[in-house]
What does this fold into?
Amino acid sequence: MMNTSNIIEVGGVIDMFKKWLSIFSKDNLMDRAYRRSFIMLDLTREMFLKSRESLRNREDSEVDINIRDRDLEVNSYEREVRRNVFNHLVVSGPEMLPSGLALVSIIIDIERIGDYAKNMVELAQEHPGKLHGGMFEDKLVRIEEAVEDNFFQTRKCFEAGEKDMALKLLEKYSWVNQSCDDILNALVREKDKNIKPGDAAALALYSRQLKRINSHLRNITTSVVNPFDRIGFDPKNRKNQSRKL
It folds into this structure.
């Protein structure tokens, strides 16, 4: 019988994620599930870019792709991954449980990114014309560029399974979430008196959506450096494990 205390400890060594990758490559179901996560990341990145274009750069709020169809496609892949992981675990037994749970956790984060991209389109459809950031425009553009790059870097890091790459990425964009909060708090305090109430509400929602998308990307990156029980937590914050990203 498997010692359940070992489940939490699996992955405590530096090469944890690479061990998972070796498991994925040796099993058809797990490898298929793993590869599906890349497709999901690519789909949600496209959804994010098109949603941002609609909200920020188009007067007509039109979207070049059908966001809802893309979202349904992401949801379909999520269900497929869950089935494949479950079937893998039924055959292989509990020894492979950490790798399976980690992959399911990752695809849940990806699916949530798709939901936020869909919310951005809904916001664009309600907001008349382009959404301008007022006095926060420069900061907002910097955040948008960071989140866009984070999609690319997260996929690259997740596929490579390199711990050093993951740590550098987490550090590189550690400022994004706080900057999103700074914009939101400044809007609540009415720091820019020239922003109309409708624009202020839209900017507040948008800044929160950017933060959540960035947070889910960071959760995925932590899977490369953390054991399963600490996915989504700051890998540097060993003494206080309650700190979420």
Observations:
- Residues 90 and 96 are 10 Å apart (CA to CA).
- Residues 11-230 form a domain with the Methane Monooxygenase Hydroxylase; Chain G, domain 1 fold (CATH 1.20.58.220).
- Residues 1-14 have pLDDT under 50 and may be disordered.
